[in-house]
């Protein structure tokens, strides 16, 4: 079950868009200034953390400790740990291929991140390579065009809509997706990020609850929950400790399957 939770890290139930109202001229200028200030912070390009990952659904909860490494360029590594701190699975991707080692069953899996094996565990049109901004509560890259600025009726936060041009290169059927971000006007903190398809269905909804260093705009979220369109349940991630000074060598995103394991090459 923990291995399925790992693969379904960003899948879940259907969410809804908030009710918003447009900004006047002065409010829009203030919002654009805030976005520019956030973009100039030079936030980290990598995440190295100890985490607790939980899944809630069908009246049950499953949880396990893990180590999590990720980079802005799309590489990631997730290791599930047993109570003694031993890894019972490791999933790595370099942004193009993936390797999954199941130490409990003595099996390994390798293939493309665009394979049907991986895509059955993530919402339609998404890739394992695009999760870094959601893990770290960061705004979209500059390549994503700003479409709309508004405020939410519920809590008066900025609601910002971007044309998502970055992550669907291999998913032509998902052209027209948009990315929505809720930002606190005073602090510039992200409360929520969503991906919405052309039919206005929410594909992914990530909500943040607290930050590890409240005074630092680049601080990582202390806790976040994720729901998506293709799986029933909610995944929650708590970042228990972040190793902010470490560098992540590229070798950790390439995994050698033990020679005595059964290897499955996935098309």
Structure description:
- The chain has 4 helices and 15 strands.
- The longest helix is centred in the first third of the chain and has 15 residues, at 25-39.
- 11% of the residues lie in helices and 40% in strands.
- It has a 15-stranded mixed β-sheet.
- With 267 residues, the chain is mainly beta.
- It has one domain: outer membrane lipoprotein receptor (LolB), chain A (Clam), CATH 2.50.20.10.
Treating each run of at least 4 consecutive H or I residues as one helix, how many helices?
Answer: 4
**How much helical structure, as a percent, in the residues?**
10-25%
The 3D shape can be described as globular
The SSE string, one letter per element, is HEHEEEEEEHHEEEEEEEE
What low-confidence regions span 5 or more consecutive residues with pLDDT below 50? 167-173
What's the CATH C level? Mainly Beta
Derived from helix and strand composition plus strand pairing, the structural class reads mainly beta
Estimate the mean pLDDT confidence: 83
Biggest sheet features: 15 strands, mixed
Task: Give the CATH H-level superfamily.
Answer: Lipoprotein localisation LolA/LolB/LppX
State the strand order across the main sheet.
1-8-9-10-11-12-13-14-2-3-4-5-6-7-15
User: What is the CA-based Rg, rounded?
Assistant: 19 Å
What is the strand tally?
A: 15
Q: Please state roughly what percent of the residues sit in beta strands, choosing from under 5%, 5-15%, 15-25%, 25-35%, 35-45% or over 45%.
A: 35-45%
CATH level 3 topology? outer membrane lipoprotein receptor (LolB), chain A
Terminal residue distance: 24 Å
